[in-house]
Amino acid sequence: MLFSSRRAPLAGIGLAVGLSALVLSPAFAEDAAATAPATATEKPVDPNAVVATVNGQELTESDLTLAEGELSQQFAQLPPEQRRAAALSAAIEIKVLAAKAKAEGLDKDPDFQRRAAFLQERALHGEVVEKDVLGKITDDEIKARYEKEIAAQPPVNEVHARHILVKTKEEAEAIIKQLDTGADFQKLANEHTNDPSGKANGGDLGYFGPGQMVPEFEKAAEALAVGSYTKEPVKTQFGWHIIKVEDKRQKQPPAFDKVKDQVKSLVIRDKYFAMVKDARAAAKVEIPDENLRKAVEAAEGGK
Predict the structure, then answer these.
(1) Per-domain residue ranges for the chain?
(2) Is the pTM of this model over 0.85?
(3) Under CATH, to which class is 157-250 assigned?
């Protein structure tokens, strides 16, 4: 028997992920793709079709699909047309060597039995997560969580600005005098700015929010009215700036469709931890070593 490790990335979910960093594992994505229904243009595959026999034991399409998913990392560099053959070859090798191990009595070894039991429990852990967590999440739940996260975010103001960066205060003052007489800001930026990215676009910085610019620059830009420019040069670590504000707006949240997968990950996380909490509460867990017990409690305290 091949003990499934395809859901292994979820096994350490309690210690390995943070609230905003959780993402669906590539292994899970590959697994989902492998088990997706055939499209109208693909010939349906009979999962019970026999692809090989080994010492009288049948290997079916389902076994081959499982092998491809289990060994996907090993086959990642192979062309698609070779992966199926490589997976079948690997499945055959596993069968024949497993038979050899049994003939030698290795399946009776206590260390092996402990590992096998652990792998089986790990696979069952993944199975219950898939059936009771992943399998029960609805689009309505994901949308509700999205709206909750958006509502919890404080409003963020953004500024759309241009700037002209020069080396000395005197240069900046001379440019400001030209602006005061009606010179075009974008043209002066193209001619004089030392910011390489601004030479071809009139010093345009696009929209930026709090913390995206150095403090002196950000403070000066926030103080300007839309359409106005700094009457005094602004000094930063990069040199001297003349700043013009083109627009101000409240930052819009990302569209639901663009962040649906990330939001779904948060729903998965919460449901997983709720399930673990209930299961742990119903279980009798004893850790005799006090230091180890405290370390476990500290690690679980961040959940």
Answers:
(1) 8-128, 133-153+256-303, 157-250
(2) no
(3) alpha beta
